[in-house]
């Protein structure tokens, strides 16, 4: 698969929590964990499960920085 997004981070799924319509997929990206909220249908279609290697593709229009 090729994709134009440059914010791709390889990781491994550590948890999949299915809700009524949306799942939270937690991905370990080398010590840090990012969470993706995607549809249950997408989880099923992609056959996502704990231990599967995936790419986290991050799309954001803004990055905010905060300090105490």
What does this structure look like?
There is one protein chain. The chain is mostly beta strands and 68 residues long. The protein has a single domain (8-57), classed as RNA polymerase II/Efflux pump adaptor protein, barrel-sandwich hybrid domain (OB fold (Dihydrolipoamide Acetyltransferase, E2P)), CATH 2.40.50.100. Helix content is 10%, strand content 44%. The chain contains 1 helix and 4 strands. It has one helix at residues 40-46, and strands at residues 8-18, 22-28, 33-39, 53-57. The protein has a 4-stranded antiparallel beta sheet with strand order 3-2-1-4. The chain is globular. It starts with 7 loop residues before the first strand and ends in an 11-residue tail after the last strand. The mean pLDDT is 92. Keywords: Molybdenum. It holds the Pfam family TOBE. Residues 2-67 form the Mop domain. One of its GO terms (biological process) is molybdate ion transport. This is Molybdopterin-binding protein.
């Amino acid at each position: 698969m090729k994709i134009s997004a440059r914010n791709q981070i390889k990781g491994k799924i550590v948890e999949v929590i299915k809700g009524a319509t949306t799942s939270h997929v937690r991905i370990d990206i080398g010590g840090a964990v990012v969470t993706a909220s995607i549809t249950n249908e997408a989880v099923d279609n992609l056959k996502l499960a704990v231990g599967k290697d995936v790419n986290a593709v991050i799309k954001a229009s803004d990055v905010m920085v905060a300090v105490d």
